Amino acid sequence: MAAIEAGPIKVKVVRVEDGAEGEAGDEPYACAPIVATFPHDARAAGHVDREHEGGIQVDLYASKDHLEKRDYYLHAKAGGSKGGGVEYVSSSLDANLGRPVKYVVGFLDRETRTLELMAPTHHASVAHFRVWRGKDDPLVMKGREETSSAASGDYDALESRRNLLKEFGSNKIKRLIAKRERTQIKDSDSLFLEDQGSVLRWATQMAEASAAKGQSEEDQLARATEARRRVLPNHDLRATTARQAYPLAGMLSSRAWDSLRASQYYRDVEEGSESCDEYVIDRLAALKGGGAGEMSKEETNRALCLYAVLKWLHKTHRRAIRCKKGEGVGALASLLDLPQDLVLDLVLKFFKSSGPGVWECSKSSRISLKLHLAVLLLMLEGYSVKTAALAEELGVDAQEAKTLARELGCAVSGDSARLMKRKRAAESGDATVAADLESRLPKVGLKKARAR
């Protein structure tokens, strides 16, 4: 908060109950020009207007959970030459309680030297930080390394700062955060990056696990191959062209396509709305109203719309969807703001009910979701894409992007991935036969036990 040249201002906290005023306690409370906290459940307890110390207007708040303890939160506006017209808040809580502080968001006017606090006060829960209160802070004194239970809130500090910037930051900051989230490698602070694992490795692990159940090697290979193909988008193993290998129409039922076409997502894509995903906007501008590669304009709009929905699910609901609106598909559709037919056909392909109002996305489903996104990107880019661009869009590192491309049957060379690039599969004189999708998919191998 901006410094005040006139120094701190002393404010007496007054308790207001049922219109009657009373002293808050025997000890005076100092309200320095600092930002303290409004709890999430604070409610107005009264209003006091005092003409002392340069003119102080005070709004007092009390926490519903602490009324018996006489815990109050003060919103004061210091007028006149001493206060500099700065608004600030403080509380009557003892600093030794070690409570986490939720900063109030405000807008500072440098010309008038006033700070306008955000209203309503529940916006204070956007950010959540632990404040060090000096060398005498009981939580950091030598010999005491434990953390107060009150200091461990519902928000992770780093993620809270991201949320704060996403909510109130400039467009430039928001774009920078989004870019970093898409390109960073998986770590504990990632917002939506998933487990780094390929379908091939996962399928091989399943095959190895089945060996303990006494299955033959042939059965293990069959099971692993089936597991790998189950997570691929709808495909035709005998197809010899990319368009036939992963047909767009087969990704959804006709009923789900109709519901998607009637949704706001589709209208936004058709109109090129600024609310669309950044890639969708860029791709629409590049195509200038036409189709992508072999696709018509209608097919391109469908692919872009489906891509936007899946990418939103991938980023926003990486492991589970918790629906507080109730149980059932209807409540889930209402929460996601998607047509129910689309939820039935698309969302439930990746998210399975695991309890009342909880829909979980398993590891194999997360891999499948990324493969669906990769196929749509390949379609929109004419079945040839830079792996760096693929990695950025999926929020994975470059190596995983290449692995995902190979899982789909792409030929990866350098920084490029191409789907169903024609090659000779067999020769008979001058005749050549185009390789089908099945021959291009990676083969599952079983790990042999070492001889001792």
UniProtKB/TrEMBL annotation:
Q: Which GO terms describe its cellular component?
A: DNA-directed RNA polymerase complex; nucleolus
The GO terms describing molecular function are: DNA binding
Q: Which UniProt keywords apply?
A: DNA-directed RNA polymerase, Nucleus, Transcription
Q: Say if the entry is tagged with keyword Transcription.
A: yes
Cite the InterPro entries for this sequence: RNA_pol-assoc_fac_A49-like (IPR009668)
Name the principal localization, coarsely classed: nucleus
Q: Which GO terms describe its biological process?
A: DNA-templated transcription
Q: So what family is this one in?
A: Belongs to the eukaryotic RPA49/POLR1E RNA polymerase subunit family.
The protein depicted here goes by the name Subunit RPA49 of DNA-directed RNA polymerase I
Give the taxonomic lineage as stored in the record.
Answer: Eukaryota, Viridiplantae, Chlorophyta, Chloropicophyceae, Chloropicales
